[in-house]
Amino acid sequence: MSHTCYVFDAYGTLFDVHSAVARHADLVGPDAARVSEIWRNKQLEYSWTRSGMARYRDFWTLTQEALDFALASVRDANRQARQKLLDAYMELDCYGEVPGVLRALKDRGARTAILSNGSPDMLGSAIRSAGLDDLLDATFSVHPLMVFKTSPETYRMVTDFWKVERGSVSFQSSNRWDIAGAAAFGFDCAWINRTGQPDEYADLAPSRVLTDLSGLLAD
What we know:
By secondary structure, this protein is of the alpha/beta class. The chain is built from nine helices and six strands, in the order βααααααβαβαβαββ. It has a six-stranded parallel beta sheet with strand order 3-2-1-4-5-6, with helices on both faces.
């Protein structure tokens, strides 16, 4: 095994960010998928904008603000679904291969962790509801730093805590911008391209591109 540590982004990588709306699609209305898309896009946009301005708000606050924008933007969306959607976001579904991959990596002696923009309460709730508590050695939230990825100091949380070299860390994310940030920091990166997106950030390439996390077991 070429890596001693496997670190995962949470949202979109371990947890399906669209599962909250999918769970309540009938309540949200016929444009539920559009609501989910806007919600996710605005959640990310707000984190980047806040980091750029050095005006931090925690990720749960931004998640709520992004949902409010999404519901207001889609004319036929049922705004009464708001609380159910927020409750569901705290207990997102994990992708099917996630528990088995984490267990296999730990059985090989690797350390496993999450590094996420998510607030500590959000991450703790998602981990517990997915039954991943015993499969993760650490959970790194950017919240204590009050800045979001892709700031280099967010990735440094891992190396500082575990006292490891950057190249010994395999970092996984479904977000290409996150892979670019981690590659710039010096992690060995696997882009989990679940939806077949075109590549970007050509100067900050991942070492490998996988369709899901199962490909890590070939390391």
